[in-house]
Design a protein that fits this description.
The chain is built from 6 helices and 17 strands. It is globular, with a radius of gyration of 19 Å. It is an alpha+beta fold. Strands 7, 8, 9, 10, 13, 14, 15, 16 and 17 form a 9-stranded mixed β-sheet that branches.
């Protein structure tokens, strides 16, 4: 088998997000054939090399790859663990999916709702979240007040946040109670939508993601999941080249 970079092998096995696996390597928690490596690109053969995380030998081939769409309710965090003991999105997955090492593709903050993907397919997760692929995310937003024309243009052209200027967005005024705006972006920065409106001194009262790429939340009930079909996954990947 052709060797592949260590970070790619770990994420492809569905052990966690790319960032989480990168941190594990960086902080010397990963060994290859008994030796610690901090090189993300260290070549490994998943069929022959003995790879361990925190001293536990890893099986780098998931039992089966699967991707779920979850209609995330408010009050749940999009991480696999939490020192504060808060409820996680994985806690509400059906029992038959909990043992498959699924992890969120990107995040929705605790107070936000809507479409969240979970997978154990590291390659898919990478191609959906890496900025180079520019997958659109559409959000319905409820804010106090009404945007002035100039404020709408500023969002559309990009606003300067603490971590840099945002890429151009699409903004539409809508009438879908309680939401009054639709915002479409192709970035996934932490709390980005809330920060964009806060930059203009508007408080977001409710936030719901209704589309990721060409996947729509549709009528999936809050708190429920559905498994993506092979056709839907191929369609997602076809837009990630």
């Amino acid at each position: 088998m052709k060797p592949e970079p260590l970070l790619k092998a770990l994420t492809a096995a569905g052990l966690g997000s790319r960032r989480r696996m990168a941190d594990a390597i960086k902080y010397e928690r990963v060994t290859v054939n008994g030796q610690v490596t901090t090189d993300f690109r260290h070549p490994v053969d998943t069929q022959k090399d003995k790879i361990a995380l925190d001293g536990r030998k890893l099986n780098l081939k998931p039992e089966r790859t699967i991707t779920l769409m979850l209609h995330k309710p408010a009050g749940y965090i999009s991480t696999l663990s939490d020192e504060r003991g808060r409820e996680k999105v994985t806690d509400i997955l059906p029992e038959n999916y909990r043992r498959l090492r699924l992890y969120p593709v990107g995040r929705l903050d605790k107070d936000s709702t809507g479409l969240l993907l979970l997978t154990n397919d590291g390659n898919l997760a990478y191609r959906l979240t890496h900025p180079r692929y520019e997958h659109e995310r559409e959000y319905l937003v409820q804010v106090e007040g009404k945007l002035k024309s100039e404020e709408k243009r500023r969002l559309e052209q990009g606003v300067e946040l603490d971590d840099g200027k945002t890429s151009p967005a699409r903004v539409r005024e809508i009438t879908a109670e309680p939401f009054n705006y639709s915002l479409t972006i192709h970035e996934g920065r932490k709390r980005q939508v809330r920060c964009m409106f806060a930059h203009l001194e508007y408080r977001v009262l409710a936030l719901k993601r209704v589309r990721f790429g060409n996947l729509n939340l549709g009528t999936l009930p809050e708190g429920r999941t559905r498994e993506l079909s092979a056709r839907e996954i191929r369609s997602l990947l076809s837009r990630a080249r």
